[in-house]
Amino acid sequence: MPGVRSPAPTDYSQEPSRHPCLKINSKEPFNAEPPRSALISSYVTPVEFFYKRNHGPIPIVDDIERYRVSIFGLVENPKELSMADIRKLPKYDVTATLQCAGNRRTAMSKVRTVKGVGWDVSAIGNAVWGGARLADVLELVGIPMLAITTPSGGKHVEFTSVDMCKEENGGPYKASIPLKQATSPEADVLLAYEMNGEPLNRDHGFPLRVVVPGIIGARSVKWLDSIVITAEECQGFFMQRDYKMFPPSVNWENISWPTRRPQMDFPVQVTVAGYAVSGGGRGIERVDISVDGGKTWVEASRYQKPDAPYTADDMCCDKWAWVLFKAEVDIPQDAEIVAKAVDIAANVQPEDVAVIWNLRGILNTSWHRVKVWVGQAKL
Q1: Of 2, 170, 277, 369, whose CB is crowded by the most CB atoms within 10 A?
Q2: By C-alpha distance, which of 164, 196, 165 is closest to 46?
Q3: Exposed, middle or buried: residue 47 (CB in 10 Å: 0-12, 13-18, 19+)?
């Protein structure tokens, strides 16, 4: 890619600086999360505390003026767009929570060991993403709003990164979403060049990344190189041989990858530390707190913006973003605090992590439990 390059797969000599408070789960490639207290200190997660998820060395921008995004495939009018071209399109700001599908993986490993980066509860963050709407960009190559297919049979939009990774045998990271999602204005899919009002930094995809609200972070491709309109979903490693949900009975000896679709939406999840989120733009209808291991419950208050009421299906609320919650409860000694959430479709978290255990350790949305030995606590 002119202007942007990926270092050699083992060259980590030009990595950006990071905040010293981050918990490093993998140094090369760099994967880290903030402490729990930093995660819920504000509704919008500061960039330095936003989790870092990488598969190789961070790409380097040598000449932003030469950078181009190619759009081609099953489309009648392929184009190459510069950053100046993209910035000419209407800018949208979308508040959206991104989350690694492996968030809370360490809890699954306590049931039975799983493979993957050992994330605690903070591989998640909420940011204000600024950029051009993907639906507007696709109109430039002749694909209208709300299109389901192109005249030449394109049904999916594949995003290819500058980032090279070992899982793709040294090739680029890539993922796709359905064309009908890409062309829907209501889906709020962005080609983002800003994060929290500032240009993207290198860790988060500078100069341009995809942000697909409401689905697992693995589909929000960073360091965008190209957009390809295809007849089938992406055939890359992270779509076909990773990030799929299997029942607990499947292990590495009997796994059959083609039997499961690539994971897109993430279901509802919550931590006692104070966030709740559901995939697909579904609001959080209720957050319940128990101090006796789930025998009795109280309802927590929910909020997004300071001094503004939160209603799960209100148009004024950010549907792609997390909901923070707060509860003041009396806690007996040797208490077990449990938190669970319910979204507007009445989806509720499973009680036991064992029933959703899977070999990749993804999508742990079980009740979150914290044992404490105090007389009173504020959650």
Answers
A1: 277
A2: 196
A3: middle
* Prior bond of 29 cis (ω within 30°): yes
Question: Is pLDDT of 276 > 50?
Answer: yes
> DSSP class of residue 65?
G
251 and 362 in contact (C-beta within 8 Å)? no
CA distance 50 to 44: 10
3-state SS, residue 132: strand
Cα–Cα distance for residue pair 55/74, rounded to 1 Å:
29
Measured on CA atoms in the order 11, 14, 16, 19, is the torsion positive or negative? positive
**Reduced to 3 states, what is the DSSP secondary structure of residue 317?**
coil
Q: What's the DSSP call for residue 363?
A: -
Residue 81 Cα to chain centre, angstroms: 25
Token match 């938190």: residue? Answer: 339
Q: Do 192 and 210 meet the contact criterion of CB atoms below 8 Å apart?
A: yes
- 212 with 189: CB under 8 angstroms? yes
Tokens of 61: 């921008």
Give backbone dihedrals phi and psi of 44, rounded to 5 degrees, phi first: -95, 125
Q: Count other C-beta atoms under 10 Å from residue 88's C-beta.
A: 11
The whole-angstrom separation of Cα 138 and Cα 283 is: 28
pLDDT at 334 over 90: no
Residue 333 pLDDT more than 70?
no
Q: What tokens appear for 190 in the block?
A: 């962005």
Query: Which residues on neighbouring strands pair with residue 96, listed in sequence order?
Result: 127
For 134-161, letters b (16+ CB in 10 Å) and e give: bbbbbeebebeeebebbeeebbbbbbbb
Residue 335 has pLDDT above 90, yes or no: no
d(CA 174, CA 65): 24
Cα–Cα distance for residue pair 212/266, rounded to 1 Å: 12
Token pair 């002119």: residue: 2
- The mean pLDDT of the chain is 92
Q: Are 117 and 26 in contact (CB under 8 A)?
A: yes
Say if residues 331 and 370 touch (Cβ distance below 8 Å).
no
Given this model, what pLDDT does residue 53 score? Answer: 97
- Range 222-232 average pLDDT: 98
d(CA 117, CA 307): 37
